Amino acid sequence: MSALEVFFLTEGNCPNCNSIRAVLSEVHHDYRHVEITEVNPSEPLGRSLVTEYGVRNLPALIIGGRLRLVGEIDARDIHHEIQKTKHHKRH
């Protein structure tokens, strides 16, 4: 089974970035085959992702090749999107 890629685009210490990091750490622990990469939009990969996915606000989560969550992101939304994407990926 291939890994589900999750990109967390952030410039650093946004108001809820630390809580998002904590949830992503839980996700990485709870779900096998989920690869999480934190990316700064000023770095080459970050610029590429911002352009490719049309990211206009930070923080942003790209899950399974789609821009899923932007701005104020809570734990429930992250878990929901991971589960939904993993389910669709299996089918």
Summarize the structure.
With 91 residues, the chain is an alpha+beta fold. It is built from three helices and four strands; from the N terminus they run E-H-E-H-E-E-H. It has one domain (4-90): Glutaredoxin (3-Layer(aba) Sandwich).
Notable characteristics:
globular, 3 helices, Glutaredoxin, 4-stranded mixed sheet, 91 residues, alpha+beta, 4 strands
- Kindly provide the name of the CATH class: Alpha Beta
Number of helices: 3
**Class from secondary-structure proportions:** alpha+beta
- The number of distinct β-strands equals 4
- Helical residue percent band: 40-55%
Molecular shape: globular
- Tell me the span between the first and last alpha carbons: 12 Å
Gross CATH architecture? 3-Layer(aba) Sandwich
Radius of gyration: 12 Å
CATH topology descriptor: Glutaredoxin
Into which percentage range does the β-strand content fall? 15-25%
Average pLDDT across residues?
90
- Total number of domains: 1
Q: Provide the spatial order of strands within the biggest beta sheet.
A: 2-1-3-4
Largest sheet: 4 strands, mixed
By CATH's scheme, which homologous superfamily applies? Glutaredoxin
Pattern of helices and strands? EHEHEEH
Low-pLDDT stretches are none
